[in-house]
Structure formats: structure tokens, C-alpha cells
Amino acid sequence: MTTVHIGVGSNIGDREENCKRAIGELNSRGISVRKASSLYETRPWGVKEQPAFINMAVEAETGLSPEELLAAAKGIEKEMGRADTFKWGPRIIDLDILFYDDIVINRKHLQIPHPLLQERRFVLAPLSEISPDKVHPALKKTVRQLKEELKDGQDA
Prior knowledge:
Elements: E1 2-10, H1 15-28, E2 31-36, E3 40-42, E4 53-62, H2 66-79, E5 94-100, E6 105-106, E7 111-112, H3 121-130, H4 143-149
């Protein structure tokens, strides 16, 4: 089994319920959630004129390949009603693969670790709650270190 970390976020509808439902959907698709962070309400990142987000992170085990995990996440988003809008726009649910063990993948459709996670407090805060000592395989720093290195006012 592979250990994966997934970012979960929502800013449309019942945001907390959307995140909880997404975790249930992950579990039903062979992605066994072992740890879940608290829920964090955060300002939007990128496009600021939209509702606040609820964000969290989960640690899970899976036998799925990175590509299968991505397909499962996108399938959950679609089934939950996520509509294609614009980059960083509002969404009913957003599932991002943050880490897949210590693998680094850099393809057009799949980048692991998530390429912006070190810039996003809304990712690092919940992730550091559940996996503070997880080492970023490319940056060679722990999640805790990455969070501490964010400057005051950087990100939400």
C-alpha cells in the first residue's frame, strides 16, 4: 500500500458537508483515509472575489497508481457536481494530490508533489497538523519547515 496525502477544499454550498462527503467517497474507492485534519476556513487564493473556502488535508493508504488516484479524485469531483469554471474559481469540491509516498512526477496532466503546496498556507496548515514531519521529496524540507518559512501575510 502507498501512503498519499490529499488536499480537500470547498467554497460552494455546505462546505463542511462537501468535504466530509468527499472523504467518504475516497474511502469507497480504495483510498483508505487514516488521518484527517481539522477544517480550516480560508480566504480564496488566486482569484479573491469569491466565497471563503473550507480546507483540510487527509492522509490515506491506497493500492491505486498515481494515474488511478487522479482519475478517482476527478471522478469524485464530477459526481459531486464540480463544474468547469476558470482557474482558481469557486468549486463545490476540490481534491488535490499533495504527496504520493516520496515519488516525484512531472507530467502535463499530473504533478506530484503538488507544485504550489509550499506557497499555500491553506494546504500547509492542515497538512502540518496530520503529517508535520513528512519530507517534501524534491525540496527536502518537512511540511512543518515549509509552513514556518511562509512569510507573514503570504497566502491566506
